[in-house]
Amino acid sequence: MSTRSKSRRTFLIDSVTGLSGAWVAANYSGILAAEEYVLKAAQSGKPVKFGFFTAEQAAEVEAMAAQIIPTDETPGAREARVINFIDRALVTFEQDAKPQYTQGLKELETQTKQLVPSAAKFSALTSEQQIQVLTAMEKSPFFNLVRTHTVTGFFASPVHGGNANKVGWKLVSYNDSLNHKPPFGYYDALPEVGR
């Protein structure tokens, strides 16, 4: 594995460790509703319809997410379909974040126009230009919200709309089979003597 892959894996593992179990517990019913919606959509065989975003807004947020977890020798946020997770979150357990996205997308447009006046929209910029715009916004609440949702969607169970084909789990070598063999931890590996 290359040094770049190792550093990317380390970044992603460090990012996911910041996700809180308390957040999951507080949003559990909404998470179940999102799961049910995505399962029905998957069974229908039709593309998931956006519940909050317009197609144009989705393209902008997806372009941001694709810079946060880019595609390189391994799949990134785009392949994981993180945009589906974010959209579902905004119509279920993260409804309070809708105004932040509405305002944040305006800020993204303004920042894009400031740095690249000829640009029609953020998603149309080159990768280097997108990084320049996001670097200028990286301390903003909106960027941090999109980053949190991107990382969450990349590693969440695929039933929530993101992590398509389990690309996030594969990247960090997570085996979701729950078929683990003892010893499970240090204590289980101790000899029976002295217990």
Write up what this structure looks like.
- This protein starts with a helix and ends in a 6-residue tail after the last helix.
- It is globular.
- With 195 residues, the chain is mainly alpha-helical.
- The model has no long low-confidence stretch (mean pLDDT 76).
- The longest helix has 18 residues, at 98-115.
- 30% of the residues are buried.
- The protein has ten helices and no strands.
What are the defining features of this structure?
195 residues; mainly alpha; 10 helices; 0% strand
Order of helices and strands: HHHHHHHHHH
Mean pLDDT: 76
Number of strands: 0
Counting copies of identical and different chains, the oligomeric state is single chain
Number of helices: 10
Radius of gyration, taken over Cα atoms and rounded to an integer in Å: 19 Å
Strand content: under 5%
Cα-to-Cα separation, first versus last residue: 41 Å
> What does the overall shape look like?
globular
Question: Percent helix among the residues?
Answer: 55-70%
- Main sheet overview: none
Q: Which structural class is indicated by helix and strand composition? A: mainly alpha
What ranges have pLDDT less than 50 throughout 5 or more consecutive residues? none
